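PT: before anyone asks, these are the final sequences, not the draft ones from last week. 594 residues across everything. Please model them as a single complex and drop the result in this thread when it's through.
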Amino acid sequence: MSAPAAEPAEPTAADFKRQLIDLALKSGALTAGVADAAAFTAAPEGHRPTDLLPKAKAVFVVGGAQPRAADWQSPMSSFMEASSTADRINALGLRMANHIERQFGYYALMVPAGIDRGGQPFVSVALAAELAGCGTKSIAGPVLHPEHGFMYYSALITTLNLPVDGPLDEPACPAPQCVEMWEAEGTTPCLATCPIDQGGCLGGRIEDGKIAETRYDRARCTTRAQTYWAPGFQKALGAALDEKDAAKRQMIINSSGFTRTLWSMTYSSVSQSQCFECMRVCPVGHERRELR
Amino acid sequence: MDAKANPETEPNPAGAHPSPEDATAAIKALASKMGGDVCGIAHVRDWDEFVPEGYRPDDILPGCESVVVIGARGPTAGAWRCPDNRIMEVNGYDFANDRAVHVVADFIERTYGFYAMQAPSLPTGGHQPPFSMMLAAVLAGLGTRSFAANIVLNPKFGLLYYSAAFTTLPLSYDGRLEQNVCPHKMCVATYRAVGKTPCMAACDADDGGCLDGTIDANGEIESVYYDRERCSTRSMQFGINSFQNALNEMIAEDDDDTRRMMINSDFVSRSCGAMGYFKDSVAQCFECMRVCPIGREERKLK
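LR: through. Structure below.
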C-alpha cells in the first residue's frame, strides 16, 4: 500500500508575492512592488491605507502603460495629447485586486484613481509607488522608475501579508547627465524646458548630486497639461457661460476645442495629460525609447 | 493566412452547426473565462409574457432565438469593507460583464456563423431602456427581484451587474429560478420581529428613505415600495444626472464670480470624472446592498 500523499504546503508570503509579480508582469506591467501599509506616515490622516481597509497589511503597486517609443518619436505633439492615459494600468490594478480576493481569499481594495473631495486623492498612488520601490520622485514631479523612467502607476490595498520592498536606496532622479548639466549651466533638461521663473511650472536645486529643493506650480501645470480633459471642459464651459453674446456663445459650444474636451472625458476615465515636455527631455529610461 | 483578413476575426457563415447543448457549454465556459461570474440563457419567447411588442429581443435582432445573460461582481470584497463610503462611489464597477458579453457575441458569429449582438442598455428615447437587463437576468435563471430597489439578486453572489447578447443560434435554456432569492430567511425573521428587513431598515421610506414592503405568511414578498426619484438623487450624485442639475444651477447664476466658482468646484470635477469613468452606470449608494445577507459569505475573506 502506498503512503498517503503529503498535504501540499501552505503558500508563504513570498510565494504569494512571486505569483502576483509574475501575473502583473505577464499582464503588461513594467514593474511591481510592495509597500508596507503602515509606512504611509507622510500622508494625512484619512488618506492612509488602513483608513480605507481596516487591518490592511500591504500595498501592491503596478507600473507601466507608459507612452510607446514611437509615441515619443512623433513630431506631432498633439498625438501624445490624445493617446496617453492611465486607464490601462488602472485596469491591471483592478485585475490584481480581483486575483488576490478570488485566488488567495484576502481582501483587496484598488485605490481609486479619481479624486476625493477637495481634489485630493484617496491615497497617493505616487507615494505608494515610492514606498513600494517602484521609483522615486523627480525634480519634475512624476515618480520615475530607474530603468524605464516615466510611467503610470496603480495601487491596491490588501490584508494579505506580503514581503515589503520598501523605498529604493538610490533615487532615479537626477540622472548623472542632469547633475553634469546642473553643474555646468545651473539647470536640468526638465527645468530648462519649463522654467518656473520664466512662465513655466518647474524649479529646483541640486546639491551634491541630489535633489535639494523642488518647486512646482501645480495650478499653472494643470492649465497646460490638461487642456482637453475635465479641467479643460470646465474652463471652456466657464467661457461659454461668461459670454453674453448668444452667437459667440454658440460658437464656443460648437467649437472643435469644446468637442475635444467632451471626447477626452469619455475616452480617458481618470487622467489624460496633454503636456509631456518635461518628460520628453528626461534622460531616465531614455535609452529604452531608442528603436530602429 | 490571407493578408487581407484574419479568419479568427471574421464572421463565419459556414461555421459548424453545433448542437444546442455543445454550443451552450462552450458559451458558458467562455463567459466564465472572460470574467463573468454567472451565465444563463433564456428563450426569446420568454419575453412575450412580460414585454410589449416592439421591445422584445426579436424586435431588435430579427430571428433572435436565444438571449445569453452574463453577470459579474462589481466592487471587490475589500471595497465593501471600506469605512469610507465614498470609495464605493468611484470604485463600484469594472465592466467585466460588458467585456464578456462582447467576447461571447464575437465567438458566436466567428465560430458558428449565427448572428449575435450586444443587447442595448442605454435609453434611446425617454428614460426607459430599450431592453431590461433585470428582466433578462430573471428569465435566464440568474436571480430574482428583491425588496431593495427591485435589484435582481443572485442566490450565490447577491448584487451583480448584468449584460446580455441576442443571437439567432438555438441554445439550451435555463428557465427561471424555482425559488425566490429574496427575502432571505434571516430577513423574514427580522421582519417578523421588527416589521422591517435589513434593507428597509437601512433606507426606510417612512423615515425619509426609499424602501418599504411587506412579507406574506409564507415568507415571500407580498408588496414592494420603491421611491425611485428619491433613490436617484441619492445614489447618482456624481454622474450625468447630477451634472445636469449642476448645469441648470450654473446657467441660472447671474453673478460671474459665483458661477466660475461653481464651474471650477471639485463637485463639477468629480461629476466630469464620473461621466467619463462609468459611462453608462454610476451608483453612489450601496447601503441597502451592504446590509443584504444574500451573497455575504462570498464577501467574507481573510
